[in-house]
Amino acid sequence: MIPTHIEHIGIAVKNLDEAINYYEEVLGLKCYKVEEVKDQKVKTAFFQVGQTKIELLESTQPDGPIGKFIEKRGEGIHHLAFAVNNIEGSLQQVKEKGVRLIDEKPRKGAEGLDIAFLHPKSTFGTLTEFCEKKS
């Protein structure tokens, strides 16, 4: 398993509109998509920077993962996502190497990607996501 590239960097924010404004007005980037992922209790906004995306994440419910993250740690980098060609195989390979998984099987994420998370206790404190775009 070798990731093909950094798919995106997820950043937890309290207010999506204010964060979008910063990325557009200060950094000169353009938000190309806003999407709600109801089962993850999150609203996302995407920016393309070269081959990598920035994903802003605003909780839609205080008890959602992003809401809990912000309450505990504040706004900031939430996760690092790697693109892989075979998400199921990649999960199996890292599990066999002793990595603790949050997701044993992929699930649907934003932009139609199949996603799965690795536990930060096994990845030196960084919540890590694998993403695969199915053809």
Structure notes:
The chain has 135 residues and is an alpha+beta fold. The chain is 22% helix and 38% strand. It contains three helices and eight strands. It has helices at residues 16-26, 65-73, 87-96, and strands at 5-12, 31-37, 42-49, 52-59, 76-83, 107-108, 114-118, 128-132. It has an eight-stranded mixed β-sheet. A hairpin with a 4-residue loop joins strand 2 and strand 3. The model has no long low-confidence stretch (mean pLDDT 96).
Low-confidence stretches: none
User: Helicity, in percent?
Assistant: 10-25%
Radius of gyration: 15 Å
For the largest beta sheet, what order do the strands appear in spatially? Answer: 2-3-4-1-5-8-7-6
Q: Specify the overall morphology.
A: globular
**Number of H- or I-type helical stretches:** 3
Mean pLDDT: 96
**SS-derived structural category:** alpha+beta
- What is the N-to-C succession of helices and strands? EHEEEHEHEEE
Beta-strand segment tally: 8
The proportion of strand residues reads 35-45%
N→C terminal distance? 19 Å
Instruction: Give the biggest sheet.
Output: 8 strands, mixed
Concise account of the structure shown:
The protein is an alpha+beta fold and 135 residues long.
